[in-house]
Amino acid sequence: GTQFPSACATNGRYRLKANDDWTNGFWTGMLWLAYEWSHQEKFRLLAMENIDSFQQRLEEHFVLDHHDIGFLYSLSAGAGYKITGDERCKQEVLAAAEVLSARFQENGSFIQAWGHYGDPKEYRLIIDSLMNLP
């Protein structure tokens, strides 16, 4: 399947891993930047392959119990839609927005940062959540 570089290097090398981290959208965003700068089709194809893995992540609700959904989907599917106009990207980013908005806590009017929604031990916000809102 699609692999992403880990968030940090070990001995100068980035280990490849599955789409299971909050930072993976940054990689796809860099692919979109490379495509915009170079117009090389290989970058668009890689970014779209990544977007397929983000779709699967949405379908399985895989590691999405956090506020970083914005980082994952704005920089991947959101950028893909802005750059290519691909309707599939648009639908994916809208579905991700629904998942993120479901973390909204009425009492306090904030997006719950982490954990199972409604768990009193996880009832917290962090300023970082604002960076995840388009």
UniProtKB/TrEMBL annotation:
Pfam families referenced in this protein's UniProt entry, alphabetically: Glyco_hydro_88
Protein name in UniProt: Glucuronyl hydrolase
Cleavable signal peptide: none
Alphabetical keyword list: Hydrolase
Similarity field: Belongs to the glycosyl hydrolase 88 family.
Protein source organism: Enterococcus gallinarum
PANTHER family in the record: HYDROLASE, PUTATIVE (AFU_ORTHOLOGUE AFUA_7G05090)-RELATED
Electron transport recorded as keyword: no
Residues that bind substrate: 68, 128
UniProt keyword Transferase present: no
GO MF assignments: chondroitin hydrolase activity
